[in-house]
């Protein structure tokens, strides 16, 4: 079956690329929204066919009929900031809620996507140079992202990511790699560090040698962590090699190696999170008793990726052909040891062409993606973070150990040996005739997608956009059996298919002002974390839950632009959802995977606003400026007439998130910016709407300066008042009956400093 599906997908991609069209040059003028046009780079940034210049990247994204954002790594804000994770890179982007749990594990949500996923991500796509970083089932994590490496970041909210083939509620974030033709300098060395034992080193080298160019970047980072048992060590190597066959053909290979070792501190009760935020949850360190079972919880990842982008400029337009292969290995001691190894791969052709219809400009994108992958899914007993050896000696005090894992508790060997005790698998701990392996399963996913997006200019300033995506996504989960705990094999499979449309208008009355309105559909297909449930207590065989896909319609209206001293980007959106994928945890403090369900009807709406004004120009030097900037994200997410929850707000994110910055910058690269982060009221923890985290205010300041000989220095101070606050929560059904350990405390006062040498 898979071979026939792949064959059909490749044939469809070939047909898409064969679409004829007459080619003509015509684009709207570029818009520079809310950014400082005075670049830090003296050298020109020319770009190439596969990776255009940063200015061209920005121009292209701002032709999107819908809400988008662009982050330039050369901006003063980014050059003088400690960028350890995606929150640091994206905190000035309206509509993107991102906050830290520990290390590079964080909550990232756009328009309510990934709203209640209490670990990793779902509901939007992470892309590197247009190529998915998600696993083939749509899930993923953040450990392949080195936020200090990328030259720019493109944010496509909601259905505005259709030009990449994405059709999720949240949209897509595309991280664009530097090349030797777009890098800030041919060579770069950087070191920074500060609070919580943080230190990071980075080295980058790039060269253009005739038609050949290459870039290699390596980053090592270590942190002891704000909390106990949250130490992290990351090694991230990225690079690319490009070759220009002619002025019309270029190919580029990308590669990456990522080595992650991350300890897990767990979640705390609200009281501990506010009064003792550096604590770790005891089971994450010492296990469920005194004998090491379930102890030393961590997430260790070894990933390697290679991809290729080949671009052709032809008489019918630009053709991009992407292909990729990613190898993933996960060793994940939690209440069990989860060990997974697999791969994902893909092929994605795309045609971008321009022609005239009855004298009117028309721009068309047609593409397809065939991508899939598979992975083992093996579980073992966890003894001090290692797979337990059932043939080894039983710990001396194990027979009398008392385990408390509410609502389950166990006392002594007799109860552990009883059938169905100790989460149903303690027999593997005690009986040396049994294997310590709890699961021996396989996961496989295949996605076939075709899409198009067309912009037809009714008038030079007025564009009509329409498009659609058709998809067929297959999810297979197989129990191989053959182990004492799962002696019998079985197989489960579900296919998701549909059509996702999009239509919109964009009006550009002036070169730097745009108005837009659009309506888009979205489909979020469950990943394997959603589909394989019933983890607690573990039951023999795969507990495959064939959830429905999440379906939504989103309407948005907005404007972006720049006039005199003012710049703005504001969007209002409203989404009606059916079968929203929501999660809740029965015992968040134990680190047991949560359960996913389909909510019948829900609603998401909100405002995404960024605005700035140049308060004072030419203060002490030519072209210096004092600027006031405001970012506001309002999120109103709730059930609609639910039988259990009525119209209660959805748990997971706060309603209002505001960030105010007053910055002073000069052409010689002096930059000083105090900031205020304000969450007036925190997020709800439970769907019954009974427990809410308190609001908070954080004060910070960042400053930096360009020094002689290509040196740049920065200082970044955060949470100066050392405010105790909650950065994220794990959702539960009802918090009234318990004191749930569902809270991640935010980081305390921190100061970081760094030095970069670009030459």
> Kindly, what is the distance between the CA atoms of the first and last residues, rounded to a whole number of angstroms?
54 Å
The residue-averaged pLDDT reads 85
- Poorly predicted ranges (pLDDT <50, ≥5 residues)? 1-44, 391-435
Q: Care to count the β-strands?
A: 35
- Report the sheet with the most strands, covering strand number, pairing sense and barrel closure: 22 strands, antiparallel, barrel
Structural class assignment: mainly beta
What is the beta-strand fraction?
A: over 45%
Silhouette: globular
Q: What gyration radius follows from the Cα positions, in whole Å?
A: 26 Å
What share of the residues lie within helices? under 10%
